Amino acid sequence: MNGSPIASGAPASPPSPEPPVVATEHLVVRSRERVILNDVSLAFPDRDVTAIIGPSGCGKTTFIRTLNRMTEIGSGLMVRGRVLYRGQDIYARGVNPVIVRQRIGMVFQRPVVFPMSIFENVAFGLRINRVDEATVERTVESCLRRAGLWTEIGDDLDRSGLTLSGGQQQRLCIARALAVEPRVLLMDEPTASLDPVAAQKVESLLFELRQNYAVIIVTHNLQQAARVATRTAFLYEGRMIEFDETKRLFESPREKLTENYVTGRFG
Amino acid sequence: MREVPEGQPIPPAGPAPAPPAVPFSASRTPLVQWLLSPIALIPLLLVAFVAIFLLWKSQLVWFGPSFFGINYFFDPTGLQPNQFGVTLFVVDSLIVALPALAIAAGLSLAMAVSIVVYLPPMPGRVLTILTNLLAGIPSVVYGIWGYVVLAPYFGSTVQPAIFGFLGWIPGLGGPLSPGGVGSLLAIFILIFMIVPITTAVMRESLRSVPHDLVEAGLALGATQWEVMRRIRLRVARRGLWGAAFLGLGRAIGESVAVAMVIGASVWIPPNVYAPSTTLASFIFYQLDSSFYYPVLLQALIEFSLVLLGLAVLLNLIGQRASGLGTTVVVTGGNGP
Ligand SMILES: Nc1ncnc2c1ncn2[C@@H]1O[C@H](COP(=O)(O)OP(=O)(O)OP(=O)(O)O)[C@@H](O)[C@H]1O
Ligand SMILES: [Mg+2]
Fold first, then answer.
1. Is residue B203, in this structure, part of any structural domain at all?
2. Which of B219, B222, B234 has the CB atom closest to A128's CB atom?
3. Fewer C-beta neighbours within 10 Å, C or N terminus of chain B?
């Protein structure tokens, strides 16, 4: 895979065997003042980890927030183009954003733990869907297991979630997102506020999650992208510059901008 | 960075850094702070001054045999022994203030919730301005409106209607008060006077819930209502209680408007329609009689002291809970 840059103009997505679970088509996001995302088309495969990288302010957060309609919460941003979830436009008329967010979950940069017990944090999404108590208990346990927290805190679920360490809190947030049974998990720099050990735990969790979910992760950390993501997209000033298999993107980028970025010449 | 000429060894570490030029203990308090600090004492002095004055002036009746009893008796002829019980007035005040607070708090919560999450910004702002406006209306205007406009209507329509539907509830049974003045009308007027403060404090409490928590709830597929119910109301709980206490303080302290519509009967009213009194309104409308009867004046001063104590207490609890006095930091996810 160490060939020379392919001299083709079209930044086509690499072919993937399955149809994408999430895709954007000519996505444009603008604020009152300016265009934040300009014509971004990307397709994300199921059961895989895709990374989004780019310098600060290039629109990474804005991008993944459009993928589950979080942009429309008091942000004043306008979204054009299409975002498809399994072929269906989630911005189409009649689509309920609440349902969209149940299918496409999100984990934030800073862990956001509700001021409730660990159990109730994980059960939150189940309670709003009026799931029966037995199922709630079963799901809470399995989600904590999948988030690698069960062995650490499984016997102390009534403790306030706020008493956990930062890394545990972030994994609690992941468990909480999993409890809603999403197909897609959006993660905006999920390890950026964690110490290296905690970050490592979250990162290794991604290898488990990729078996069952489409994970889309924004990261500032290029090594992290290289470790966890099969594919990586490079955004620059609101435009999608290059989207390729991670190894290829890092080792033989087609675009000069990408090369400058991944070699640390700016950003 | 110092330039280290190439090829030369790095110079050895120098002597320990000099101690800071200004010792850490040096006072750097600016002059203006010294001048302004005493201003913080002004409210304290004012409250203390009023309290001391009241204590001093009321010494005649204070701790009299029936001050904390339920009886109130005043005989201007002096033939009967005068006895003054404050408890009756506190009870009467609560009979009016608590229902008014309950209704006002419900209304305020509904308005605060709508303003914070449901209404678009513009109507929300208009509603805020309108509720604040209610606070700007002088209470004597509420009183005259209640006495002239509302009282006849209450007597002819509102009282019979409430009696008809809810007459089976204790306190809402008959007999009615045909003129319309009485506790019910006072409650109604008080609602207008409480709503601005409770709405403002509730609105700010709900607003101060960290946006992160709200977003995290929505990202889990919760609706705005579910986030309100399970997160916002929960996190803002203290502030909401604080609003209630501030509202109660407001209701208990109101005198003029209540005096004009409550009918001034010193007793425990048999029902909510009957004329009654409150601590604050009683002090207000008895003041002119007390001009002739020094012992009554002593009692009123003493009542004022009790009222002051109640108001200060409720206000302090309310301020503390709602975080008006301090900066509230409601922490959500605390990172490492
Ligand atoms: N609601 C908004 N209204 C106006 N401008 C916004 C809004 N949200 C984001 N922006 C702007 O869009 C640009 C991209 O922001 P975004 O947060 O997506 O960048 P980012 O790539 O995630 O950066 P970082 O790596 O620092 O997190 C920024 O210039 C930001 O100021
Ligand atoms: Mg960001």
1. yes
2. B222
3. N
